[in-house]
Design a protein that fits this description.
Layout: H1 2-5, H2 14-25, E1 40-45, H3 52-55, E2 63-68, H4 75-87, E3 92-96, H5 102-105, H6 108-119, H7 134-146, E4 156-162, E5 169-171
The structure holds zinc ion.
The site of zinc ion has 7 residues, from helix 5.
Length: about 170
């Protein structure tokens, strides 16, 4: 890691730190609680085309958001959802993968090859959890949440696909 870091300019983050200063200048949300005020939890992809709050008309403080490549319900996502339901006011869970997701467009071998070429070393050991069939994966994820022993039936669980070209979500499950 140290070798890689030595190539980076010392002010790598200076623009972001300056922007944060501006953000904090009129910050009025100190002491705000960590409850999901709209009772919503969202599991979605890390894709930069997705703004989870805006796409659902939600505001700061309204939702718990868990993101990973592909928007899959992983072990860590379940950890977040169980905590959200029992401690943070969540009563609706949306699982929202999206159109044109890189995790559906590449095979595991292709991703390993691309990363390996980018890094210039072997990356065949790295797991990426690609998604060969997005709707089948969504169905599996929705069922996993609905049948989780620590998520009660009173919690609504929906499976959606977000269209990155129209901004619309389409409920599939
Ligand atoms: Zn994606």
């Amino acid at each position: 890691m140290a070798e890689v870091s030595s190539f980076l300019p010392v002010d790598d983050f200076s623009d972001l730190i300056a922007a944060n200063q501006t953000f904090a200048d009129d910050f009025s949300l100190g002491g705000f609680d960590g409850v999901a005020h709209a009772g919503v939890a969202i599991v979605t992809c890390m894709d930069s085309r997705i703004n989870p709050l805006a796409m659902l008309g939600l505001q700061y403080g309204d939702a718990k958001i868990f993101r990973n490549p592909g928007g899959r319900v992983t072990t860590a996502a379940l950890e977040a959802l169980v905590l959200g339901v029992h401690l943070l006011g969540v009563n609706r869970i949306l699982i929202v993968p999206h159109t044109r997701c890189a995790m559906t467009a590449n095979t595991e071998a292709e991703l390993r090859d691309r990363v390996g070429q980018s890094m210039g070393v072997d990356a065949s050991w790295q797991q990426f959890n690609v998604i060969p069939d997005q709707l089948a994966a969504l169905d599996e994820d929705v069922q996993t949440v609905r049948s989780h022993p620590l998520i009660p039936d009173s919690v609504a669980v929906g499976g959606f696909v977000y269209d990155v070209d129209t901004g619309l979500i389409d409920q599939k499950l």
